[in-house]
Design brief:
Blueprint (H helix, E strand, L loop, with lengths): L1 H9 L4 E4 L3 E4 L3 H4 L5 E4 L3 E4 L10 H25 L7 E2 L2 H10 L4 H4 L4 H8 L3 E10 L4 H10 L6 E12 L4 E13 L3 H12 L10
Parallel strand pairs: 3-5, 3-6, 4-6
Antiparallel strand pairs: 1-8, 2-8, 6-7, 7-8
Helix pairs in contact: 3-8
């Protein structure tokens, strides 16, 4: 089992070949620069292809993995932005506080995606929210099945990942969106996938300190 886990961990390497990103800014985005000062980062919405589940993997395993991965990606995105906060005109709410407030309001991972972004921003006491989405395609390999079944939280082997970041204000207006598609040999590491997204998205993050 030790050898098996070692092999699994070695497989959690992501080699990304990305298509060009698609960026959207609202017509009124410039006006938002004076009002958007603090943002909360929500747990990511993660969708893993479950059409052809390997032996030993259940839909419940996939759902649990999606939820854990969503929180993992939220944490990595927060860490990434926090480390570069001095370069931005916005601050970022601690994700532990964000998640505690969501839990207190009975907002779960399952119903988070159907909640109004503006209402969430108001609830969290911030000027807007950053939400993320990751859709992983192609069936998992047996190695991916082991990751999900044994470790619970892997993404599963995939060769394509479509990710996105969005920013909404307290009126639920979409201010900015960044779509990013990665392809190639994608492993099962949420941190690697999020780092790949943030490495690219942070270059285009719209609330930057003027030089």
């Amino acid at each position: 089992m030790k050898t098996l886990k070692t092999l699994i961990l070695l497989s959690l390497v992501v080699l990304l070949a990305a298509c060009g990103p698609t960026i959207y800014k609202s017509a009124g985005f410039e006006d938002s620069k004076s009002s958007i000062k603090k943002l909360a980062i929500l747990p990511f919405t993660v969708s893993i292809d479950s059409k052809k589940l390997p032996k030993g993997v259940t839909v419940e395993n996939i759902m649990e993995s999606q939820m854990k991965t969503g929180y993992d990606m939220q944490g990595v995105a927060y860490k990434w932005l926090l480390q570069r906060e001095k370069n931005y005109t916005t601050q970022f709410q601690d994700v532990d506080k964000t998640n505690a407030l969501l839990k207190k309001a009975n907002i779960t991972y399952d119903n988070l995606s159907t909640s109004e972004k503006g209402e969430l921003a108001t609830l969290l006491g911030v000027d807007g929210v950053i939400s993320g989405r990751a859709t992983l395609s192609k069936p998992m390999s047996e190695a991916g099945a082991i990751v999900v079944a044994v470790l619970i939280g892997g993404l599963g082997s995939t060769n394509k990942a479509t990710t996105a970041l969005t920013i909404h204000d307290t009126k639920s207006d979409l201010l900015w969106k960044y779509d990013y598609q990665a392809s190639g040999s994608l492993g099962s590491n949420a941190e690697s996938l999020t780092n790949a997204l943030m490495r690219n998205a942070s270059k285009k993050y719209p609330y930057k300190v003027s030089k």
